[in-house]
Amino acid sequence: MGLSHVAYGVYERRLLKHLDPSRMPRHVGAIVDGNRRWAKDARMDLEQGYRAGAAKVDEFLDWCHELGVGTVTFWVLSTDNLQRPEAELTSILDAVEALVGRLADDGRWHVRLIGNLQLLPDDSSARLERAAAASPDTDGIMQVNVCVGYGGRQELTDAMRALLLAEAAKGRSLEEVASTLEVDHIADHLYTKGQPDPDLVIRTSGEQRLSGFLLWQSVHSEFYFSDVLWPAFRRVDLLRAMRSYAARERRFGA
Question: Rounded mean pLDDT of the chain?
Fold first, then answer.
């Protein structure tokens, strides 16, 4: 083991020692950015970059599980990504399908697909749904959301559509719906219905924007931006994010 590994091990233990378990986030969101740049820097093809990024999800979940996080949400494929060249999109979907299957088979977490799967190729969406349905769903188990075919604007559009259709089925007019509409009515139709909003959102690769990630749910989230490309993200990087989160005074807009 090199000196750098020893030093990082000492640093990790120091960070972990000073983390207050009562100030840990319940729900962590992750925008897993930088797979393509990592592959380019490592002189690998894109498929290897996406596979490395998918493998990092497994490690990240292990770390979050150790820290007592109850819900983790990963954004692995956006609606914008669906416009990428067919060969690249196929590589992404292959990596995502393998990831969802692996997570479902793990047995430690319940996998939930977040997004509009109708935007994906039919065979891919079917495989993803079958895999996620096979994951356990028992009380107290970690919830793992995989955002695929996801866009924040798309989610809000789908939520409003679902709300209007549900109200129309009750025989209510558009005017009646508008006059009684409350914030919670919309929240009840989001992809994440029934789950807590993210306390902490992490984005890798140095980009400092949300790009539409959980637009509604992240209104009171804390954000942490890391320069590290996602496949190179380490446990120490997560602990730094947790330390930053724990040091903040959350005001929730007050």
Answer: 93
